[in-house]
DNA sequence: GTCTATAGACGGATAGAC
DNA sequence: GTCTATCCGTCTATAGAC
Protein backbone atom coordinates (compact mmCIF):
# COMPACT_ATOMS: atom_id res chain seq x y z
CA UNK A 1 0.00 0.00 0.00
CA UNK A 2 2.84 2.39 0.70
CA UNK A 3 5.41 3.35 -1.82
CA UNK A 4 8.99 3.27 -0.66
CA UNK A 5 10.34 6.63 -1.72
CA UNK A 6 13.96 5.90 -2.19
CA UNK A 7 16.25 8.54 -3.56
CA UNK A 8 17.41 6.26 -6.31
CA UNK A 9 16.66 8.37 -9.35
CA UNK A 10 17.74 5.89 -11.97
CA UNK A 11 15.11 5.76 -14.74
CA UNK A 12 12.78 3.31 -13.09
CA UNK A 13 11.08 0.64 -15.12
CA UNK A 14 7.33 1.17 -14.71
CA UNK A 15 6.35 -0.17 -11.33
CA UNK A 16 3.65 -2.77 -11.00
CA UNK A 17 1.34 -0.20 -9.53
CA UNK A 18 1.64 2.04 -12.57
CA UNK A 19 1.36 -0.80 -15.03
CA UNK A 20 -1.90 -1.76 -13.36
CA UNK A 21 -3.21 1.79 -13.63
CA UNK A 22 -2.30 1.98 -17.30
CA UNK A 23 -3.86 -1.37 -18.10
CA UNK A 24 -7.01 -0.56 -16.16
CA UNK A 25 -7.39 2.78 -17.89
CA UNK A 26 -7.12 1.23 -21.34
CA UNK A 27 -9.47 -1.62 -20.53
CA UNK A 28 -12.04 0.67 -18.94
CA UNK A 29 -12.24 2.59 -22.20
CA UNK A 30 -12.47 -0.58 -24.22
CA UNK A 31 -15.03 -2.49 -22.20
CA UNK A 32 -16.44 -0.18 -19.56
CA UNK A 33 -15.92 -0.28 -15.81
CA UNK A 34 -18.23 -3.16 -14.98
CA UNK A 35 -17.22 -5.37 -17.85
CA UNK A 36 -13.53 -5.07 -17.03
CA UNK A 37 -12.44 -7.76 -14.57
CA UNK A 38 -9.46 -7.70 -12.29
CA UNK A 39 -8.15 -10.71 -14.15
CA UNK A 40 -8.20 -8.82 -17.45
CA UNK A 41 -6.34 -5.96 -15.84
CA UNK A 42 -3.60 -7.94 -14.14
CA UNK A 43 -3.19 -10.11 -17.19
CA UNK A 44 -2.58 -7.10 -19.46
CA UNK A 45 -0.38 -5.45 -16.86
CA UNK A 46 1.74 -8.56 -16.53
CA UNK A 47 1.00 -8.62 -12.83
CA UNK A 48 -0.45 -11.11 -10.44
CA UNK A 49 -4.13 -11.11 -9.63
CA UNK A 50 -3.47 -10.50 -5.96
CA UNK A 51 -1.32 -7.48 -6.77
CA UNK A 52 -4.25 -5.22 -7.46
CA UNK A 53 -5.74 -5.92 -4.07
CA UNK A 54 -2.39 -5.41 -2.47
CA UNK A 55 -1.85 -2.03 -4.10
CA UNK A 56 -5.37 -0.64 -4.16
CA UNK A 57 -7.52 -2.73 -1.86
CA UNK A 58 -10.67 -3.09 -3.90
CA UNK A 59 -11.76 -2.69 -7.48
CA UNK A 60 -13.66 0.49 -6.60
CA UNK A 61 -10.53 1.97 -5.07
CA UNK A 62 -8.63 1.10 -8.23
CA UNK A 63 -11.23 2.90 -10.31
CA UNK A 64 -10.85 5.99 -8.15
CA UNK A 65 -7.09 5.84 -8.46
CA UNK A 66 -7.32 5.66 -12.25
CA UNK A 67 -9.44 8.79 -12.36
CA UNK A 68 -7.67 10.71 -9.66
CA UNK A 69 -4.27 10.26 -11.26
CA UNK A 70 -5.31 12.31 -14.30
CA UNK A 71 -8.17 14.41 -13.00
CA UNK A 72 -6.25 16.20 -10.29
CA UNK A 73 -3.76 17.50 -12.79
CA UNK A 74 -6.39 18.31 -15.42
CA UNK A 75 -8.42 20.38 -13.00
CA UNK A 76 -5.31 22.12 -11.79
CA UNK A 77 -4.58 23.15 -15.38
CA UNK A 78 -8.16 24.25 -15.93
CA UNK A 79 -8.01 26.52 -12.91
CA UNK A 80 -4.63 27.85 -13.97
CA UNK A 81 -6.04 28.70 -17.39
CA UNK A 82 -8.93 30.52 -15.76
CA UNK A 83 -6.51 32.39 -13.54
CA UNK A 84 -4.60 33.52 -16.59
CA UNK A 85 -7.59 35.00 -18.41
CA UNK A 86 -8.79 36.68 -15.24
CA UNK A 87 -5.40 38.22 -14.67
CA UNK A 88 -5.24 39.29 -18.30
CA UNK A 89 -8.64 40.97 -17.95
CA UNK A 90 -6.97 43.20 -15.44
CA UNK A 91 -9.92 43.79 -13.14
CA UNK A 92 -12.61 43.65 -15.80
CA UNK A 93 -14.64 40.53 -16.54
CA UNK A 94 -13.11 38.08 -19.00
CA UNK A 95 -15.18 37.42 -22.08
CA UNK A 96 -17.36 34.31 -22.13
CA UNK A 97 -15.31 32.97 -25.01
CA UNK A 98 -12.16 33.18 -22.92
CA UNK A 99 -13.77 31.30 -20.05
CA UNK A 100 -15.11 28.61 -22.34
CA UNK A 101 -11.73 28.28 -23.94
CA UNK A 102 -10.02 27.95 -20.60
CA UNK A 103 -12.22 25.02 -19.66
CA UNK A 104 -12.79 23.15 -22.90
CA UNK A 105 -9.50 24.09 -24.51
CA UNK A 106 -7.59 22.61 -21.62
CA UNK A 107 -9.70 19.47 -21.88
CA UNK A 108 -9.08 19.08 -25.57
CA UNK A 109 -5.39 19.59 -25.10
CA UNK A 110 -5.27 16.58 -22.83
CA UNK A 111 -7.43 14.68 -25.29
CA UNK A 112 -4.93 15.43 -28.03
CA UNK A 113 -2.04 14.01 -26.05
CA UNK A 114 -1.76 10.52 -27.43
CA UNK A 115 1.77 9.98 -26.19
CA UNK A 116 1.11 9.90 -22.48
CA UNK A 117 -2.33 8.32 -22.55
CA UNK A 118 -4.22 11.59 -22.14
CA UNK A 119 -6.37 10.79 -25.14
CA UNK A 120 -7.30 7.42 -23.69
CA UNK A 121 -8.24 8.96 -20.39
CA UNK A 122 -10.37 11.70 -21.89
CA UNK A 123 -12.42 9.17 -23.80
CA UNK A 124 -12.93 7.36 -20.55
CA UNK A 125 -13.84 10.54 -18.73
CA UNK A 126 -16.30 11.66 -21.37
CA UNK A 127 -18.12 8.38 -21.13
CA UNK A 128 -18.10 8.44 -17.36
CA UNK A 129 -20.14 11.62 -16.98
CA UNK A 130 -23.18 9.48 -17.63
CA UNK A 131 -21.93 6.44 -15.77
CA UNK A 132 -24.76 4.67 -13.95
CA UNK A 133 -22.54 3.54 -11.09
CA UNK A 134 -23.51 5.80 -8.21
CA UNK A 135 -20.19 5.72 -6.42
CA UNK A 136 -18.35 6.85 -9.55
CA UNK A 137 -20.75 9.73 -10.08
CA UNK A 138 -20.39 10.77 -6.47
CA UNK A 139 -16.63 10.65 -6.73
CA UNK A 140 -16.61 12.70 -9.93
CA UNK A 141 -18.94 15.26 -8.42
CA UNK A 142 -16.49 15.81 -5.57
CA UNK A 143 -13.54 16.09 -7.88
CA UNK A 144 -15.36 18.67 -9.97
CA UNK A 145 -16.93 20.76 -7.24
CA UNK A 146 -14.30 23.47 -7.05
CA UNK A 147 -13.69 23.73 -10.77
CA UNK A 148 -17.37 24.05 -11.59
CA UNK A 149 -17.91 26.64 -8.93
CA UNK A 150 -15.11 28.76 -10.30
CA UNK A 151 -16.07 28.45 -13.94
CA UNK A 152 -19.81 28.86 -13.47
CA UNK A 153 -19.22 31.88 -11.28
CA UNK A 154 -17.02 33.43 -13.92
CA UNK A 155 -19.61 32.77 -16.60
CA UNK A 156 -22.39 34.24 -14.48
CA UNK A 157 -20.42 37.44 -14.01
CA UNK A 158 -19.45 37.64 -17.66
CA UNK A 159 -23.07 37.34 -18.77
CA UNK A 160 -24.89 39.52 -16.28
CA UNK A 161 -28.11 39.82 -18.28
CA UNK A 162 -28.60 36.10 -18.80
CA UNK A 163 -30.58 33.98 -16.32
CA UNK A 164 -28.31 31.66 -14.40
CA UNK A 165 -30.43 28.62 -15.19
CA UNK A 166 -29.88 29.31 -18.83
CA UNK A 167 -26.11 29.50 -18.41
CA UNK A 168 -26.13 26.35 -16.32
CA UNK A 169 -28.06 24.43 -18.96
CA UNK A 170 -25.85 25.69 -21.73
CA UNK A 171 -22.75 24.67 -19.86
CA UNK A 172 -24.33 21.26 -19.49
CA UNK A 173 -25.00 21.13 -23.24
CA UNK A 174 -21.42 22.14 -23.90
CA UNK A 175 -20.19 19.30 -21.76
CA UNK A 176 -22.27 16.93 -23.85
CA UNK A 177 -20.90 18.27 -27.10
CA UNK A 178 -17.36 18.02 -25.80
CA UNK A 179 -17.92 14.50 -24.60
CA UNK A 180 -19.00 13.41 -28.05
CA UNK A 181 -16.24 15.41 -29.66
CA UNK A 182 -13.67 13.49 -27.70
CA UNK A 183 -15.37 10.15 -28.11
CA UNK A 184 -15.25 10.99 -31.80
CA UNK A 185 -15.76 8.35 -34.37
CA UNK A 186 -14.90 5.56 -32.01
CA UNK A 187 -18.00 6.30 -29.95
CA UNK A 188 -20.24 5.04 -32.63
CA UNK A 189 -19.93 3.62 -36.09
CA UNK A 190 -23.14 5.42 -36.90
CA UNK A 191 -21.06 7.70 -39.01
CA UNK A 192 -18.93 4.84 -40.25
CA UNK A 193 -16.42 5.83 -42.83
CA UNK A 194 -17.81 9.29 -43.10
CA UNK A 195 -15.44 11.21 -40.86
CA UNK A 196 -13.08 12.00 -43.66
CA UNK A 197 -11.40 14.68 -41.66
CA UNK A 198 -10.80 13.50 -38.13
CA UNK A 199 -7.60 15.46 -37.65
CA UNK A 200 -7.39 16.06 -33.91
CA UNK A 201 -5.62 19.35 -34.58
CA UNK A 202 -8.77 20.63 -36.20
CA UNK A 203 -11.10 19.37 -33.53
CA UNK A 204 -10.32 22.25 -31.22
CA UNK A 205 -11.42 25.10 -33.53
CA UNK A 206 -14.33 23.01 -34.77
CA UNK A 207 -15.70 22.38 -31.32
CA UNK A 208 -14.92 25.83 -30.02
CA UNK A 209 -16.85 27.63 -32.70
CA UNK A 210 -19.82 25.31 -32.16
CA UNK A 211 -19.75 25.82 -28.39
CA UNK A 212 -19.53 29.58 -28.64
CA UNK A 213 -22.31 29.67 -31.18
CA UNK A 214 -24.50 27.72 -28.82
CA UNK A 215 -23.56 29.75 -25.78
CA UNK A 216 -24.28 33.04 -27.54
CA UNK A 217 -27.50 31.89 -29.21
CA UNK A 218 -30.57 34.08 -28.63
CA UNK A 219 -32.39 33.10 -25.49
CA UNK A 220 -35.21 30.64 -25.87
CA UNK A 221 -38.71 32.02 -26.00
CA UNK A 222 -40.82 30.16 -23.47
CA UNK A 223 -44.01 31.96 -24.36
CA UNK A 224 -45.18 29.23 -26.71
CA UNK A 225 -44.25 26.35 -24.48
CA UNK A 226 -47.80 25.23 -23.97
CA UNK A 227 -48.45 25.00 -27.66
CA UNK A 228 -47.47 22.03 -29.72
CA UNK A 229 -43.90 22.61 -30.83
CA UNK A 230 -44.61 23.64 -34.36
CA UNK A 231 -42.08 23.18 -37.09
CA UNK A 232 -42.91 26.44 -38.72
CA UNK A 233 -41.21 28.69 -36.21
CA UNK A 234 -38.01 30.46 -37.13
CA UNK B 1 -56.57 -23.54 -20.24
CA UNK B 2 -55.85 -19.96 -19.18
CA UNK B 3 -53.72 -18.67 -22.02
CA UNK B 4 -56.12 -17.85 -24.80
CA UNK B 5 -54.11 -17.06 -27.88
CA UNK B 6 -57.11 -15.73 -29.70
CA UNK B 7 -58.12 -12.12 -29.42
CA UNK B 8 -59.98 -11.67 -26.20
CA UNK B 9 -60.04 -7.92 -26.25
CA UNK B 10 -60.87 -7.36 -22.62
CA UNK B 11 -58.33 -5.09 -20.84
CA UNK B 12 -55.25 -7.25 -21.15
CA UNK B 13 -53.08 -7.44 -18.10
CA UNK B 14 -49.50 -6.84 -19.19
CA UNK B 15 -48.07 -10.09 -20.44
CA UNK B 16 -44.96 -11.55 -18.89
CA UNK B 17 -42.98 -10.65 -21.98
CA UNK B 18 -43.91 -6.98 -21.72
CA UNK B 19 -43.35 -6.84 -18.00
CA UNK B 20 -39.86 -8.16 -18.59
CA UNK B 21 -39.18 -5.52 -21.24
CA UNK B 22 -40.39 -2.75 -18.95
CA UNK B 23 -38.36 -3.98 -16.01
CA UNK B 24 -35.25 -4.41 -18.12
CA UNK B 25 -35.58 -0.94 -19.59
CA UNK B 26 -35.84 0.68 -16.18
CA UNK B 27 -32.99 -1.32 -14.70
CA UNK B 28 -30.72 -0.68 -17.67
CA UNK B 29 -31.10 3.04 -17.02
CA UNK B 30 -30.49 2.62 -13.34
CA UNK B 31 -27.50 0.31 -13.40
CA UNK B 32 -26.29 -0.01 -16.97
CA UNK B 33 -26.49 -2.99 -19.28
CA UNK B 34 -23.67 -5.06 -17.80
CA UNK B 35 -24.54 -4.43 -14.19
CA UNK B 36 -28.14 -5.47 -14.66
CA UNK B 37 -28.60 -9.18 -14.13
CA UNK B 38 -31.39 -11.40 -15.37
CA UNK B 39 -32.29 -12.02 -11.76
CA UNK B 40 -32.82 -8.33 -11.10
CA UNK B 41 -35.00 -8.11 -14.17
CA UNK B 42 -37.21 -11.11 -13.51
CA UNK B 43 -37.48 -10.21 -9.88
CA UNK B 44 -38.76 -6.72 -10.66
CA UNK B 45 -41.01 -8.04 -13.41
CA UNK B 46 -42.54 -10.62 -11.08
CA UNK B 47 -41.50 -13.34 -13.45
CA UNK B 48 -39.44 -16.46 -13.19
CA UNK B 49 -35.75 -16.44 -14.00
CA UNK B 50 -36.21 -18.96 -16.78
CA UNK B 51 -38.92 -16.86 -18.40
CA UNK B 52 -36.49 -14.41 -19.94
CA UNK B 53 -34.62 -17.17 -21.69
CA UNK B 54 -37.89 -18.69 -22.82
CA UNK B 55 -39.12 -15.43 -24.32
CA UNK B 56 -35.91 -13.90 -25.63
CA UNK B 57 -33.26 -16.61 -25.69
CA UNK B 58 -30.26 -14.73 -24.36
CA UNK B 59 -29.54 -11.55 -22.47
CA UNK B 60 -28.15 -9.92 -25.59
CA UNK B 61 -31.34 -10.70 -27.46
CA UNK B 62 -33.31 -9.15 -24.62
CA UNK B 63 -31.22 -5.98 -24.85
CA UNK B 64 -31.93 -5.78 -28.56
CA UNK B 65 -35.64 -6.27 -27.94
CA UNK B 66 -35.68 -3.46 -25.39
CA UNK B 67 -34.11 -1.05 -27.86
CA UNK B 68 -35.95 -2.21 -30.94
CA UNK B 69 -39.35 -1.85 -29.30
CA UNK B 70 -38.93 1.93 -28.97
CA UNK B 71 -36.37 2.75 -31.61
CA UNK B 72 -38.33 1.49 -34.58
CA UNK B 73 -41.22 3.76 -33.72
CA UNK B 74 -38.99 6.72 -32.84
CA UNK B 75 -37.15 6.56 -36.13
CA UNK B 76 -40.42 6.19 -37.99
CA UNK B 77 -41.60 9.41 -36.38
CA UNK B 78 -38.35 11.18 -37.13
CA UNK B 79 -38.63 10.30 -40.79
CA UNK B 80 -42.27 11.31 -40.84
CA UNK B 81 -41.33 14.69 -39.37
CA UNK B 82 -38.68 15.12 -42.05
CA UNK B 83 -41.20 14.17 -44.70
CA UNK B 84 -43.51 16.86 -43.42
CA UNK B 85 -40.99 19.68 -43.59
CA UNK B 86 -39.86 18.55 -47.03
CA UNK B 87 -43.41 18.49 -48.30
CA UNK B 88 -44.06 21.88 -46.72
CA UNK B 89 -40.99 23.26 -48.48
CA UNK B 90 -42.80 22.48 -51.71
CA UNK B 91 -39.81 21.66 -53.84
CA UNK B 92 -37.41 24.08 -52.21
CA UNK B 93 -34.92 23.02 -49.54
CA UNK B 94 -36.19 23.05 -45.97
CA UNK B 95 -34.32 25.35 -43.64
CA UNK B 96 -31.62 23.84 -41.43
CA UNK B 97 -33.64 24.81 -38.38
CA UNK B 98 -36.58 22.78 -39.65
CA UNK B 99 -34.43 19.72 -40.22
CA UNK B 100 -32.84 20.01 -36.81
CA UNK B 101 -36.22 20.41 -35.24
CA UNK B 102 -37.57 17.37 -37.04
CA UNK B 103 -34.82 15.19 -35.60
CA UNK B 104 -34.21 16.57 -32.14
CA UNK B 105 -37.73 17.79 -31.56
CA UNK B 106 -39.10 14.33 -32.16
CA UNK B 107 -36.50 12.92 -29.80
CA UNK B 108 -37.35 15.35 -27.05
CA UNK B 109 -41.04 14.68 -27.44
CA UNK B 110 -40.43 11.05 -26.64
CA UNK B 111 -38.17 12.08 -23.78
CA UNK B 112 -40.98 14.22 -22.36
CA UNK B 113 -43.40 11.31 -22.36
CA UNK B 114 -43.19 10.10 -18.80
CA UNK B 115 -46.45 8.20 -18.93
CA UNK B 116 -45.48 5.44 -21.34
CA UNK B 117 -41.85 5.13 -20.38
CA UNK B 118 -40.52 7.22 -23.24
CA UNK B 119 -38.52 9.35 -20.87
CA UNK B 120 -36.91 6.29 -19.33
CA UNK B 121 -35.98 4.95 -22.70
CA UNK B 122 -34.48 8.17 -23.96
CA UNK B 123 -32.20 8.39 -20.97
CA UNK B 124 -31.11 4.87 -21.75
CA UNK B 125 -30.61 5.66 -25.42
CA UNK B 126 -28.59 8.78 -24.73
CA UNK B 127 -26.22 6.84 -22.58
CA UNK B 128 -25.96 4.03 -25.07
CA UNK B 129 -24.47 6.08 -27.87
CA UNK B 130 -21.16 5.75 -26.07
CA UNK B 131 -21.72 2.20 -24.89
CA UNK B 132 -18.49 0.22 -24.94
CA UNK B 133 -20.25 -3.06 -25.74
CA UNK B 134 -19.46 -3.67 -29.39
CA UNK B 135 -22.54 -5.66 -30.20
CA UNK B 136 -24.80 -2.88 -28.91
CA UNK B 137 -22.97 -0.26 -30.95
CA UNK B 138 -23.24 -2.39 -34.05
CA UNK B 139 -26.92 -2.91 -33.47
CA UNK B 140 -27.55 0.80 -32.96
CA UNK B 141 -25.58 1.68 -36.06
CA UNK B 142 -27.83 -0.55 -38.14
CA UNK B 143 -30.98 0.86 -36.61
CA UNK B 144 -29.80 4.38 -37.37
CA UNK B 145 -28.41 3.93 -40.83
CA UNK B 146 -31.44 5.04 -42.80
CA UNK B 147 -32.39 7.92 -40.52
CA UNK B 148 -28.90 9.38 -40.53
CA UNK B 149 -28.60 9.11 -44.28
CA UNK B 150 -31.87 10.98 -44.76
CA UNK B 151 -31.16 13.71 -42.23
CA UNK B 152 -27.54 14.29 -43.13
CA UNK B 153 -28.46 14.41 -46.79
CA UNK B 154 -31.11 17.00 -46.07
CA UNK B 155 -28.66 19.07 -44.03
CA UNK B 156 -26.03 18.91 -46.74
CA UNK B 157 -28.49 20.20 -49.31
CA UNK B 158 -29.78 22.91 -47.02
CA UNK B 159 -26.27 24.22 -46.36
CA UNK B 160 -24.65 24.03 -49.78
CA UNK B 161 -21.74 26.30 -48.94
CA UNK B 162 -20.63 24.44 -45.84
CA UNK B 163 -18.11 21.58 -46.03
CA UNK B 164 -19.77 18.26 -45.34
CA UNK B 165 -17.23 17.32 -42.70
CA UNK B 166 -18.20 20.41 -40.80
CA UNK B 167 -21.90 19.54 -40.91
CA UNK B 168 -21.15 15.98 -39.89
CA UNK B 169 -19.14 17.10 -36.89
CA UNK B 170 -21.74 19.60 -35.84
CA UNK B 171 -24.45 17.01 -36.06
CA UNK B 172 -22.28 14.85 -33.85
CA UNK B 173 -21.89 17.70 -31.37
CA UNK B 174 -25.65 18.23 -31.39
CA UNK B 175 -26.18 14.58 -30.55
CA UNK B 176 -23.90 15.02 -27.57
CA UNK B 177 -25.73 18.09 -26.35
CA UNK B 178 -29.06 16.32 -26.72
CA UNK B 179 -27.78 13.29 -24.90
CA UNK B 180 -26.81 15.41 -21.92
CA UNK B 181 -30.01 17.40 -22.15
CA UNK B 182 -32.05 14.24 -21.79
CA UNK B 183 -29.84 12.75 -19.13
CA UNK B 184 -30.38 16.06 -17.37
CA UNK B 185 -29.62 16.42 -13.75
CA UNK B 186 -29.76 12.73 -13.10
CA UNK B 187 -26.70 12.19 -15.25
CA UNK B 188 -24.47 13.79 -12.73
CA UNK B 189 -24.79 15.47 -9.39
CA UNK B 190 -22.03 17.76 -10.49
CA UNK B 191 -24.65 20.43 -10.64
CA UNK B 192 -26.35 19.17 -7.50
CA UNK B 193 -29.22 21.30 -6.37
CA UNK B 194 -28.44 23.93 -8.92
CA UNK B 195 -30.91 23.03 -11.64
CA UNK B 196 -33.60 25.23 -10.21
CA UNK B 197 -35.55 25.13 -13.39
CA UNK B 198 -35.69 21.62 -14.76
CA UNK B 199 -39.13 21.97 -16.30
CA UNK B 200 -39.15 19.48 -19.16
CA UNK B 201 -41.52 21.76 -21.06
CA UNK B 202 -38.79 24.33 -21.23
CA UNK B 203 -36.08 21.92 -22.20
CA UNK B 204 -37.17 21.85 -25.82
CA UNK B 205 -36.76 25.59 -26.56
CA UNK B 206 -33.64 25.71 -24.41
CA UNK B 207 -31.91 22.95 -26.29
CA UNK B 208 -33.19 24.00 -29.68
CA UNK B 209 -31.81 27.49 -29.44
CA UNK B 210 -28.46 26.15 -28.29
CA UNK B 211 -28.32 23.62 -31.12
CA UNK B 212 -29.22 26.15 -33.78
CA UNK B 213 -26.72 28.62 -32.40
CA UNK B 214 -24.03 25.98 -32.65
CA UNK B 215 -25.06 24.81 -36.09
CA UNK B 216 -25.07 28.33 -37.46
CA UNK B 217 -21.86 29.45 -35.81
CA UNK B 218 -19.20 30.93 -38.08
CA UNK B 219 -16.97 28.27 -39.55
CA UNK B 220 -13.79 27.53 -37.69
CA UNK B 221 -10.63 29.11 -38.95
CA UNK B 222 -8.01 26.42 -39.40
CA UNK B 223 -5.31 28.78 -40.58
CA UNK B 224 -3.65 29.00 -37.20
CA UNK B 225 -3.98 25.35 -36.29
CA UNK B 226 -0.33 24.39 -36.39
CA UNK B 227 2.71 24.02 -38.52
CA UNK B 228 1.53 21.05 -40.50
CA UNK B 229 2.39 21.41 -44.19
CA UNK B 230 -0.54 22.24 -46.41
CA UNK B 231 -2.99 23.31 -43.78
CA UNK B 232 -2.55 27.00 -44.30
CA UNK B 233 -3.54 26.73 -47.92
CA UNK B 234 -7.29 26.56 -47.39
C1' DG C 1 -45.78 -21.11 -20.37
C1' DT C 2 -44.17 -21.45 -15.90
C1' DC C 3 -41.73 -23.51 -12.42
C1' DT C 4 -37.44 -25.81 -9.57
C1' DA C 5 -33.03 -27.18 -9.64
C1' DT C 6 -28.63 -27.12 -11.23
C1' DA C 7 -24.81 -26.98 -14.35
C1' DG C 8 -20.69 -24.54 -15.41
C1' DA C 9 -18.08 -20.39 -15.80
C1' DC C 10 -16.45 -16.28 -13.84
C1' DG C 11 -16.51 -12.57 -10.50
C1' DG C 12 -13.94 -10.10 -6.27
C1' DA C 13 -11.40 -10.93 -2.49
C1' DT C 14 -8.18 -13.26 0.90
C1' DA C 15 -4.81 -16.51 3.37
C1' DG C 16 -0.49 -17.63 3.78
C1' DA C 17 4.04 -19.39 1.73
C1' DC C 18 8.10 -17.31 -0.10
C1' DG D 1 5.91 -7.29 -2.97
C1' DT D 2 4.74 -11.26 -5.38
C1' DC D 3 3.06 -15.67 -5.75
C1' DT D 4 -0.40 -20.00 -5.56
C1' DA D 5 -4.48 -21.75 -4.12
C1' DT D 6 -8.89 -21.22 -2.72
C1' DC D 7 -13.35 -19.44 -0.66
C1' DC D 8 -17.66 -18.06 -1.80
C1' DG D 9 -20.87 -15.46 -4.23
C1' DT D 10 -23.27 -14.39 -8.64
C1' DC D 11 -23.75 -14.88 -13.27
C1' DT D 12 -26.09 -16.87 -17.75
C1' DA D 13 -28.20 -20.62 -19.47
C1' DT D 14 -30.50 -25.09 -19.64
C1' DA D 15 -32.85 -29.52 -18.34
C1' DG D 16 -36.91 -31.39 -17.19
C1' DA D 17 -41.21 -31.77 -14.12
C1' DC D 18 -45.77 -29.86 -14.17
Write a short abstract of this structure:
With 234 residues, chain A is mainly α. The first copy, chain A, has 9 helices and no strands.
Would you kindly provide a written description of the structure presented here, covering whatever features stand out?
With 234 residues, chain A is mainly α. The first copy, chain A, folds into 2 domains: 13-57, Arc Repressor Mutant, subunit A (Orthogonal Bundle), CATH 1.10.10; 67-217, Tetracycline Repressor, domain 2 (Orthogonal Bundle), CATH 1.10.357.10. The first copy, chain A, contains 9 helices and no strands. Residues 1-8 and 228-234 of chain A have low confidence and may be disordered. Helix content of chain A is 65%, strand content 0%. Chain A has helices at residues 16-31, 38-45, 49-56, 59-89, 96-112, 118-128, 134-158, 164-183, 200-215. Chains A and B meet through helix 1, helix 7, helix 8 and helix 9 of A and helix 1, helix 4, helix 5, helix 7 and helix 8 of B. Chain B binds a DNA duplex (18 and 18 nucleotides) through helix 3.
Task: Walk me through the topology.
2 copies of one chain form a homodimer.
Chain A: H1 16-31, H2 38-45, H3 49-56, H4 59-89, H5 96-112, H6 118-128, H7 134-158, H8 164-183, H9 200-215
Helix pairs in contact in A: 1-2, 1-4, 1-6, 4-5, 4-7, 5-6, 5-7, 5-9, 6-8, 8-9
Chain B binds a DNA duplex (18 and 18 nucleotides) through residues 2-3, 16, 37-39, 47-51, 53-55, 57-59.
Amino acid sequence: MFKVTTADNRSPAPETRDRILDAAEALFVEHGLEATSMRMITSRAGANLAAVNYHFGTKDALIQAVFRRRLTELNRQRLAALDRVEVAANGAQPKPSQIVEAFFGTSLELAADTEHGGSTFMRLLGRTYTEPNAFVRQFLAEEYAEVLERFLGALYRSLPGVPREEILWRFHFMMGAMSYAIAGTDALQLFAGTFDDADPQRLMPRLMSFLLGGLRAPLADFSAVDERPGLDAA
